[in-house]
Amino acid sequence: MNDVTEAPEEEExxxxxxxxxxxxERMVEAMLFASAQPVTVRDLEARMPIGCDAAEALVxxxxxxxxxxxxxxxxxxxxxxxxxxxxGFLMQxxxxxxxxxxxxxxxxxxxxxxxxxxxRAEIEEIRGVSVSRGTIDQLLEMEWIxxxxxxxxxxxxxxxxxxxxFLDHFGLESARDLPGLKxxxxxxxxxxxxxxxxxxxxxxxxxxxxxxxTGQPELFxx
Amino acid sequence: MNDVTEAPEEEExxxxxxxxxxxxERMVEAMLFASAQPVTVRDLEARMPIGCDAAEALVxxxxxxxxxxxxxxxxxxxxxxxxxxxxGFLMQxxxxxxxxxxxxxxxxxxxxxxxxxxxRAEIEEIRGVSVSRGTIDQLLEMEWIxxxxxxxxxxxxxxxxxxxxFLDHFGLESARDLPGLKxxxxxxxxxxxxxxxxxxxxxxxxxxxxxxxTGQPELFxx
Amino acid sequence: xxxxxxxxDTISVADRLAAEALIVDVEGxxxxxxxxxxxxxxxxxxxxxxSVLELARQYLAFVxxxxxxxIELAADYLVMAAWLAFLKSRxxxxxxPSEEGPSGEDLAAHLAFQLERLQAMREVAARLMAxxxxxxxxxxxxxxxxxxxxxTVRFTATLLxxxxxxxxxxTRDEFRPFxxxxxxxFTMEQALERMRGLIGFAxxxxxxxxxxxxxxxxxxxxxxxxxxxxxxxSLELVKQGQLEIRQSATFxxxxxxxxx
Lengths: 222, 222, 260
Fold this sequence. Notes:
- The complex is a heterotrimer, with 2 copies of chain A (222 residues) and 1 copy of chain C (260 residues).
- With 222 residues, chain A is of the alpha+beta class.
- Chain A has helices at 2-15, 21-34, 41-47, 54-64, 103-115, 120-127, 133-141, 164-170, 181-186, 205-219, and strands at residues 39-40, 70-75, 78-83, 92-100, 118-119, 145-147, 159-162.
- Chain C has 260 residues and is mainly alpha-helical.
- Chain C has helices at residues 2-24, 31-41, 52-68, 75-92, 104-129, 159-170, 188-198, 220-239, and strands at 148-156, 206-207, 243-247, 254-258.
- Chain C is rod-shaped, with a radius of gyration of 58 Å.
């Protein structure tokens, strides 16, 4: 049985002299290079002259590319050429784009900074709108906020606090350096409020102010 | 003068130790290998660490690939890796059937390549027939030709020149390597000789003619 | 003249065959120059040594035949024929020193140059197309790993942004549609209701100010509103015949009492 199958193969080999080893290696090299997909040994041989040994050529080619900028790699049962993984950085071009933080993100960040540690529910209550997951994620990713200790209230909700990266970016030594409400007003940032002393239209202001004064320092006493 | 320019270069080299030669060669290899389009030395260096000499690495890389199944070729001021031409027969599968060019398109292309920058009127003068809009459009669309600078003759006609894509397609380093260019020039066949006297078959060119004689050889003597 | 006859004889058969082929296929030629180039091949000589006179004859013969066969020739073929006829006459006649313009030889040389140049362009075009071409003989990287552009977006904000953001939240409550603030307004309805309840106790003349509700007499704004409302309510009650109202002098206190 063995003899029967081997005989014609031998014959074929002698009839069509296979190209020399180096030539076969070149062929495999060119085919792997030009192919859009990894190529199987079978496909390689189908395209090469009769009598070629693609597997053998691949072994030699792979050795030749060892340590080079390009490697011969096996992908499933096919072969391909790929750039060396340590040179991946050359295949990327980094561009940094600076963009202003969205208004929602800034407000959320401000609430966390002024009220930390603060839960998501508290942020929502203060902003009056729900806070999207993306906004929190963005601030976490930027490392401007991080998770604080859980609140000792039902459900033990997580809290958010600002990070040293945040303080660094805003040039603050501590969150306590953030201007208080009074200073904000003096800076004209709260100018929508009636001037102090005038007849107040909203009578909740006094208490709020108190809260601010007493609440604020406590918040930052970790 | 030499000392002045060399000094900062030295400094830079010592400040930023460039990767060793072999490493630079690997980098250039990976970048050329990965790109289907030719890459300029400038682009290569922009992606490499500071202090690298891509041109130098390219020379070594080109030598390394001599006789392989893949070659390092120069196209205009860029470099690319291409399969060896003798192995084209293996690549039947990869062949992209390109639109067959008409005889008019082929002749027009050759005239542009050998006479660039050349106006439409000049092409017509050489071919003895008008050039259809479609022919020029097709060549422009294939990105084998592009508009060159306008000719400083009455009417300031646009000119056509060949592109790096053209060079890449025909395996030319530059337009100077066009086959038979030297012989044609020596035979005076690249001059656009003015027809004697006022009587010309297509009488639009007398003024343009002068420019031709001086303009043509200049292009290739760069 | 004899020379010309000789030439005509030697090529007449080939010429005739070629001309016939041309007539059948005149559409296949790209203009007169292309046709001339084809005709010139029948001379089987270097283009630089071509006999332009002979070529002119061939061309004119071609045009004549085409006319005889009623083949419509494009205008440029006829223009070329006219020009070649002129050239032929120039070449055949001895140069006339009084005549202006280029000599027949100059014109012939230029035509020969044009033909040679066109031929040269065709040859190099063929050489160009026969080169190892990208995508046919030579191949580019099949799976280009193009440079990945990593766009990092860095978000920034300033301390002012932060403060403004916080201020915006803390003052948001005041941004609301404009409505009359009712807090310091005592309406006539409120005054009427109040007075109807109290009217039974007003048997005697009482100053209107005494009717003001508690907490509305210290603040000037509130006092003004309450006073106006109470006065208007009093007038209403007077109209209804439940109350009497009087003022002793201008700016004197206004007094009311239950109608007796």
